[in-house]
Amino acid sequence: MLFRRIILNALLVGIVASFVFSLLQVYVVNPIIFASETYEVAEEPAPVADHHHGEEAGHAHSHDEEAWAPEDGIERTAYTMSANIFAGIGYAAILLAVMSQLSLQGLTRVNLLKGIAWGIGGFIVFFGAPAIGIPPEIPGIEAAPVEHRQAWWMLTAAAVAIGLLVLVYAPLKFKALGVVAISLPYLVSAPHPDGPAFSHPDPAAIVALTDLHQQFIVTTSVSNLLFWLVMGVMSAWVLNRWVLTPNVLKGLGQDETANA
Amino acid sequence: MTTQVSSAQHAKTHVKVSSLAQTAAAIIFGAVVVFAVGFLPMDAAHNAAHDTRHAMAFPCH
């Protein structure tokens, strides 16, 4: 049963890749988030369409009675790591499913080297392409309404994923459509706020936040690239070993003898 | 004979659909999980996954 094998292996790949990511996040990425949060001010004007209803806008962890939030420290790290694991499992399921389908259709034969390419592809689709329009954000940054940014993010990931797959796997006459798909989100253009990047009133704080933001873009890029490289290589490995096994292929009528 | 051939062809078509259905289901599963971590607007979900959302370049706040 192909679906079950994809999901089971996605659990494995997701846990391993997110563990690597979590290590980097705890030691390199999160300190920047925490440092940025020290500059957050309660008096900030509420961003438009903010989804925290009536709480102190811009504060990373809402402290109103209604919304639960993990306690800073071990609990917060534990929730972050759990969220990483879920994100890893979800991404791995998508990656393994696409790899499986293309393999079953005879469009590719995945190996470890191609796994690296798949990892780079995943990094471009789910981090690089959205980050070109909306760079990774630190707390306290001014941004367009979150719903608009989320919609653009999803459009970008979907369009670039389809575009890359078309560029690599579609017949030559369709490749131009791949370029069109990849360009589409940037023609639509990402939502950006009018006004300054940071709402903090103190110029010194803005200098510090700008510096933190630069560091954040670098550290998240490196962390996500490593995460995706582990995802790609490991997915390629489990695909040949545990997903598309002779038994599964036989069940799908895909083995060589069936075609004889 | 012809019925055998056609039933074999039918089986093959059916198999193709079933593998595509399964991989599509896995993609939907993955997308739902990623959506829950990165996009769910619920405050509690946002607060639990807050640092992950920032680190993975999901829009936050």
From TrEMBL, chain A:
Where are the stretches annotated Disordered? 45-66
Q: Which UniProt keywords apply?
A: Membrane, Transmembrane, Transmembrane helix
Output compositional bias ranges, type Basic and acidic residues.
49-66
Transmembrane parts of this sequence: 7-28, 78-99, 111-132, 152-172, 225-244
Q: Name one Pfam family in it.
A: CbtA
Put simply, this protein is called Cobalt transporter
Species:
Litoribrevibacter albus
From TrEMBL, chain B:
Name recorded for this polypeptide = CbtB-domain containing protein
At the top level, the lineage of the source is Bacteria
Q: By its UniProt entry, which InterPro entries does this protein fall under? A: CbtB_put
Species of origin reads: Litoribrevibacter albus
Q: Tell me which Pfam families the record gives.
A: CbtB (PF09489)
Give yes or no: UniProt keyword Transmembrane.
Answer: yes
The UniProt keyword set, sorted, is:
Membrane, Transmembrane, Transmembrane helix
Which residue windows are transmembrane per the record? 20-40
